[in-house]
Specification:
This protein has 90 residues and is mainly alpha-helical. It contains 5 helices and no strands. Helices cover 58% and strands 0% of the residues.
Length: 90
C-alpha cells in the first residue's frame, strides 16, 4: 500500500504541556482525527482504524474512552435494522 504523509505544525512544547512524548502526541492526533472522521460518517471503522494505525477492534474499544459510540448508524440505518429484526422475529 502506498502511503501519503500529512504535516501538522504545532507550537514547540505542546506535547510536553499535555504531559506526552512527541510520539504519544502524534499517536493521539492520528487517533482523534480518525475518530472524528468515523463519528461524522466519513470513514468506516476499518478505514479509521487504518488511519490511526490500530487494529479495528482496538480502535472501536478506544472510541469509548472519548465518548464516541462504536456503532455509528444513521437514523435510517437504525430504522432498517429494527425493521429487519422485526421481520426475522415473525
Amino acid at each position: 500500500m502506498t502511503l501519503n504523509k500529512a504535516v501538522l505544525t504545532y507550537p514547540k512544547g505542546f506535547p510536553q504541556m499535555l504531559k506526552m512524548s512527541e510520539g504519544e502526541f502524534v499517536e493521539e492526533l492520528r487517533f482523534l482525527a480518525a475518530a472524528k472522521m468515523y463519528e461524522l460518517g466519513k470513514l468506516t471503522a476499518g478505514k479509521a482504524a487504518q488511519l490511526s494505525e490500530m487494529k479495528r477492534l482496538d480502535f472501536l474499544y478506544r472510541l469509548g474512552t472519548i465518548g464516541v459510540p462504536a456503532i455509528n448508524l444513521r437514523d435510517e440505518e437504525v430504522d432498517a435494522e429494527i425493521q429487519a429484526a422485526q421481520d426475522l422475529a415473525r
